[in-house]
Amino acid sequence: MLAAAPPVGIAIGEPTWLHTHKFTVKQVSTITATPQGTVNYWSSVADLSGFALYIVRMHRRLFTAHGVYVIAILAALAAAGVTIGNGVIKAVLETVHHDGQPRLPALFDQLHLTEGFVTTEVELSQIWMEVSTKLEALHAQ
Question: How many whole angstroms separate alpha carbon 83 and alpha carbon 54?
């Protein structure tokens, strides 16, 4: 008799600069098609929840690539009609962190978010691959 094995995730390689605070609010806004004020608000809520997506250097917020990824997930959910409140932000943060450490998705990882009778699903690995391509171009500059 064969026993079912747990699913195996196919890891996506981490860029060496994943945790480098390099990307400005304006760049995050452009990459994620999210207004700068919204980026600031969402990242402030994340900070108050114990997940710092940015540091402040010389009066400027600088995000890591992982922080940009979090904002991109929230933007994808908002585009799908999800109201982005504190609970949604915290759910996303808990999904993309493991033992308090930022983590990238495995290939085909998804986030399922249920509000009432509606479940919204976003493809986390697709969001990361789209964002990372744009970040790679900025990082190379």
Answer: 23
Tokens of 10: 């196919």
C-alpha to C-alpha distance for 109 and 125, rounded to whole angstroms: 6
Contacts for 29 with CB less than 8 Å, ≥ 6 apart: 35, 36, 39
Quick: pLDDT tens for 119-128: 788 888 899 9
Q: Which residue has the tokens 């493991």?
A: 98
Among all chains, which residue has been given the structure tokens 């391509």?
Answer: 133
Residues 20-59: tens digit of each pLDDT: 899 999 999 999 999 999 999 999 999 999 999 999 999 9
